[in-house]
Amino acid sequence: MQKTTLPAVVSTFVVSFAFWVLLTWSFTPQELIAGAVISLAVALFSARFFIHEKAFWLCNPAKFFSGLFYWVCIFPVELVKANVDMAKRCFGGCKNINPGIVKVPVDLKSDYGQAALANSITLTPGTITMETTEEDGQNYFYIHWIDVTAPSGREAGDAIKGTLEKGLRRVWE
Amino acid sequence: MTALRIVIDVLIGISAIFALAGTIGILKMPDTFSRMQASTCIPTLGTICALLGALLYAIFFKNGDAGSAVKIAVIGLMILVTNPLGSHAIAKGAYKAGVRPEKKMETDDLGRDLYD
Q1: Cα–Cα nearest to A156, from B35, B4, B70, B109
Q2: Most exposed: A65, B38, B71, B116, by fewest CB within 10 Å?
Q3: What is the pTM (predicted TM-score) of this model?
């Protein structure tokens, strides 16, 4: 577990306070001060769990806009495609499936990047990340895939997460 | 305003269709993991489209009710952040507890490498 550093506390405070303002949506001084005090307490206690790497990576505009592009353009398109595919299988009587667990290599190095990729994969219907592992410096995901069309390895990885990983690499690498 | 109203209704209709697809999947898929896969349709397009419709309604028909609109956006964000965490945990836990499909899976690298 990492030590609590000042940038980590500041960034956790900003996130907590933003959530407070969004949830209360009132701008009277009492509410704002109470929110600030609680956010500071939360930040002091939980910053070391919340922030593991650089705290202010979002302040780099290139990363910020590639992140925005990923979550506004790339990911929703993949999501809709996978949803339509899954809905077709469901309305077709659930016979047209071929499930299996494949092991695919992942090229993202940072913790945040891997977490974002794993969550994106799980949110897409048809694929669930079940386990991550590291062998000889290469990270692997074990992914449950509803329609296995390729054996484990690069080919299956490209079919499952090629577009997503390309988008995320610009954000975190 | 009528055009906007139609857009909202279409969004909520789409969400109903995907939620129905997910429910059919949960009931009819043959094994645990495939059922989880089908159920992912419900929190993604099922909920997101409904919330999008509600968001448009709150903004344009409630005279810019910012409190409701922001709360709807926060609900959507929380669902998108927390749903995959639950899915990981359930899938991994089920596999560790020894749940296996009746019909043999096409490939099963997780069992080969870690558990069997």
Answers
A1: B109
A2: B116
A3: 0.85
The tokens describing B1, both together, are 């305003």
Q: Is B66 on the interface with A (CB under 8 A)?
A: yes
Hey, is the C-beta of B108 within 8 angstroms of any chain A C-beta? yes
**One digit per residue, pLDDT tens: chain B, 116 residues?**
788 999 999 999 999 999 999 999 889 888 888 888 888 888 888 899 999 999 999 888 887 677 888 888 889 988 988 999 998 998 888 888 887 877 777 677 777 777 65
Domain ranges of chain A: 6-55, 64-172
pLDDT digits (tens, 9 = 90+) for A136-166: 888 888 888 888 887 777 888 888 888 888 8
Q: What does the buried/exposed string (b/e) look like for A92-114 if buried means 16 or more CB atoms within 10 Å of the residue's CB?
A: eebeebebbbbbbebebebebbb
Return the residue in B28, B40, B62, B95 with the most chain A beta carbons within 10 A, the one to mutate for interface testing: B40
Q: What is the DSSP string of chain A?
A: -PPP-HHHHHHHHHHHHHHHHHHH----HHHHHHHHHHHHHHHHHHHHHH--S-TTGGGSHHHHHHHHHIIIIIHHHHHHHHHHHHHHHHHTTS-S-B-EEEEEEE---SHHHHHHHHHHHHHSTTEEEEEEEEETTEEEEEEEESB--S-TTHHHHHHHHHHHHHHHHHHH-
For chain A, say whether B101 makes contact (Cβ under 8 Å): yes
Judged by a CB distance cut-off of 8 A, whether residue B44 touches chain A is yes
A103: chain B residues, CB-CB within 8 Å: 109-110, 113
Rg of the Cα atoms in chain B = 19
